[in-house]
Design a protein that fits this description.
Chains A, B: This is Crp/Fnr family transcriptional regulator. Two copies of one chain form a homodimer. Chain A is α+β, with helices and mostly antiparallel strands. The first copy, chain A, has a domain of 106 residues: Jelly Rolls, CATH 2.60.120. Chain A contains nine helices and six strands; from the N terminus they run H-H-E-E-E-E-E-H-E-H-H-H-H-H-H. In chain A, strands 1, 2, 3, 4, 5 and 6 form a six-stranded antiparallel β-sheet that branches. Chain A is globular, with a radius of gyration of 18 Å. Chain A binds a DNA duplex (30 and 30 nucleotides) through helix 9.
DNA sequence: ATTAGCACTTAATGTAGATTAAGAAAGTTA
DNA sequence: TAACTTTCTTAATCTACATTAAGTGCTAAT
């Protein structure tokens, strides 16, 4: 059972030959917790697909504060889209949070696959569309909802992550300080 | 000169026959200012490309406050991606701000074109990727920058819009009230 | 066992930006 | 031209969240 093929099969169906070609273009590796897969300031060469474990992307602003863009656990893709697409140095760090097995797809192989298997261009188009919609919603939520409401939405959307992710990182994802998050959480429990 | 073909030509090159097929699938219409192209609660049937004029997408939250997601002037695409992709009722309104000429591409025609002209699937994939990157950056900016810094970025990124868009809408886009925006602007001018 | 490091909590104080309200300016329609 | 609507400004007050700082408890390395 190859998780990434299941992931693709949910959107497009590949022939056996296409599956084999695809598998020949990817590489699967184990990583320890705290490994940095990609550093800000460097050019991103791969898309990452998480087979197991937990990964996050984040940036660090001038005041040395981290802001989490994205968490990815089993079955999710993650990367620095800006750097990958532009092949310029990006602002994101990508870090393994829990010991993980990760599929690497290089930019060159990805582009090659678009030519060899047009269905994969469709697959990534749809994947990107879904990601865009999620980002639009998160953006609007950040403009119009309170921190409590954003946390509620986070809990509903990513129930499994709440147990696994340190709470300071959830605070960062929803856009508040760990101190305020702690206070807010205890306030919410009282209700 | 057809603006939308130039727009496509920047990313993929179509043959004359493909251009003609594409043109046969779109519809161009004039709209007056204040026309609502798409209402929240309805299912979005079209992608919109702006030939001339100015359009915005926004939502309205429980407190009857508008939040601008996106402005689109000449050469930009706009739509309710969530509703268009899911074919479910969306949360966005799409409104013409300045008398406009707009290209309509129906969802069915768009999907048909993906089959007939795979290069267009590539075109929209790349368009969506670029949009995603822009949304990721805006999201991170909202998490880590002050209102002044967000306004500075807006000015640099969309210099032509500053003259054309009512300032209360810019305030909404960067995520502050019109009152605070007014105060902030005069404070910034003093420097 | 001891220390060091990190996640979390609590509390005092500070501030960016919201809210409310009122008036001035500017655009729109009759 | 006036009458109406909408945008913008100013100012007082309020609050959600940040900052700073100190302390608690857990894990993990020495």
């Amino acid at each position: 059972m190859v998780l990434i093929l299941d992931n693709i099969a949910k959107i497009v169906s590949l022939t056996e030959a296409e599956k084999e070609l695809f598998l020949s273009k990817i590489e699967t590796q184990p990583f320890k917790a705290k490994t940095i897969l990609h550093n800000a300031g460097e050019i991103c060469k791969h898309s990452y697909f998480v087979n197991s474990g937990l990964v996050r992307s984040f940036n660090i602003n001038d005041n040395i504060v981290e802001h989490v863009l994205h968490f990815a656990c089993e079955g999710w893709w993650i990367g620095d889209m800006y750097s990958l697409l532009s092949q310029k140095p990006g602002n994101l760090f990508i870090e393994v949070m829990e010991e993980a097995e990760i599929v690497l797809l290089s930019k060159e192989n990805q582009e090659q696959l678009y030519f060899d298997i047009p269905k994969l261009e469709r697959f990534f188009r749809i994947l990107t569309e879904n990601s865009l919609v999620a980002h639009q919603e998160r953006l609007m939520d950040n403009l119009s909802l309170s921190a409590e409401e954003r946390f509620d939405k986070f809990c509903k959307r990513y129930p499994t992550l709440i147990q696994r992710v340190p709470q300071k990182q959830i605070a960062s994802y929803i856009g508040v300080t760990p101190e305020f998050f702690s206070k807010m959480k205890s306030r919410m429990l009282k209700k």
